[in-house]
Amino acid sequence: MEDDSDQESIESARQPPITKPQKKSLIRILIIILDMDEAYHSKSPADPIKLNLPDYFSKVKRPMDLGTIMDTLQQDGYSSLSSFFKDFDQVLHNSVVYNGEYHEITECAREMHRRFDCSQAYLPHDTPTSAQIQGIYARRAGWRKARGARTLRRVKSIKRGIRRDIQSTRPRDEIHRYTTVFNTIIPISWFFFFHFSLTLCHILSALKFVTSIKSLPKDIRNTYTSN
After folding, report:
1. What is the architecture, at CATH level 2, of domain 11-120?
2. How would residue 89 be classed by pLDDT, with cut points 50, 70 and 90?
3. Among 117, 84, 92, which Cα is nearest to 15's?
4. What percent of the chain has pLDDT over 70?
5. Residue ranges of the alpha helices (H) in the chain?
6. Fewest 10 Å CB contacts: which of 107, 119, 147, 176?
7. How many CB atoms within 10 Å of residue 75?
């Protein structure tokens, strides 16, 4: 047992410590879990005498509760996140060992575990080292330099195009000949289309008038033709 505890202390020492943002988030998560109805049996250490549990310490070798975890966290007693997770898992493990897998208290502890697993995803990441921060700054400086070079090349190409148009010996209408032709063709096309439509309407009206006269009786038609 001593060898296992020494190995665990060595492994926890190798891991990064809990940062201040992580500590605040863990305290906030524990407060939410302590407000749950399922946390009633795990808020404080179990009292075997008051609860009439004479064999509790013989079965549970490492008692743990949420109040003890909160006090240890607030006093910076955890060297890493893994040590905190180990104590939190111990609450469910002790309930399974003493009460059984499907006991009501075990189901409450399992529900607390599910809530903690959902909230654990919002824990802040580890604080980056100075080398990582310098690498981030270097990459951002490279991105800004590349973006500035692209913008400068774009401005220079626009200036070259403007200078080429100004210094050219060709007349302006020749430089923009496609735009000039396009702007000239469109009004002429509309003009011819309008006159063609108007002429077609006149022809159709005349044909309709001739057919209407032919459908009249002969005496009335002679009156129109004589006039």
Report:
1. Up-down Bundle (1.20)
2. very high
3. 84
4. 59
5. 2-14, 20-34, 56-59, 66-74, 81-99, 104-120, 130-167, 172-175, 177-214, 218-226
6. 147
7. 8
CB 65 within 8 Å of CB 44? yes
Question: Domain coordinates of the chain in residue numbers?
Answer: 11-120
Specify whether the CB–CB gap between 25 and 19 falls below 8 A: no
- From residue 115, alpha-carbon distances to 68, 87, 149, 226 in Å are 19, 16, 50, 105
pLDDT digits (tens, 9 = 90+) for 129-183: 555 555 656 666 666 666 666 676 666 666 566 555 555 555 454 445 555 555 6
140 burial via Cβ count (<10 Å: 0-12, 13-18, 19+): exposed
b/e sequence 34-45, b meaning 16+ C-beta within 10 Å? beeebbebbeee
Distance CA 4, CA 6 (A): 5
From residue 146, how far is each of 137, 150, 155, 175 by CA, in Å?
14, 6, 14, 34
Q: How far apart are CA 134 and CA 140, in angstroms?
A: 10
Query: Measured in Å, how far apart are the chain's first and last C-alpha atoms?
Result: 132
pTM: 0.51
Task: Quote the radius of gyration of the chain (alpha carbons, Å).
Answer: 45
Q: By CB neighbour count within 10 A (0-12 exposed, 13-18 middle, 19+ buried), where does 201 fall?
A: exposed
pLDDT at position 124: 75
